[in-house]
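From the shared-data thread, chain only:
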Amino acid sequence: MKSQNDTPLTLPLPDRCAPVAEALAAAGLPDRIQVLDASARTAAEAAEALGCAVGAIANSLVFLSGGEPVLVMTSGGHRVDTAALAARWGRPELRRATPEEVRAATGQAIGGVAPVGHPRQLPTVVDEYLIGHDRIWAAAGTPHTVFSTTAAELLRLTGGRLLPVGP
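Structure, as tokens:
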């Protein structure tokens, strides 16, 4: 966010961003979170607010696999083929988590789920398509907060595995 003279504005972060900010700082990536004026609840909204391609938005999607919550970081331009991804990942069937299950697993609501800052680290897949973007953007705990990163940083932050998420 910028002021009229193009200097960054410092805004207090919402409380729900604190675990995300702490995780980023612990990983050596402090001060990355930005507060947006517009909602970034969907990949299209985030891309519009940030002025980037929708494919550069890293969606944090929570699924259940064998009763365990898992995280799939997918490019905003892709849909997850749950059967194909479960087979590639070597996991039981993937079922999209309910809003209540998402909040229980991450402490965050759908539309603002970050890849980090959860009560415990979730098994994670990062969409291989994200590697093609120099900079990607992920939610930071609320629908109005994001942080910039790279696919390599995202893999390191989440301990994730790089896989295609489509068919």
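Confidence is low (pLDDT under 50) at residues 1-10.
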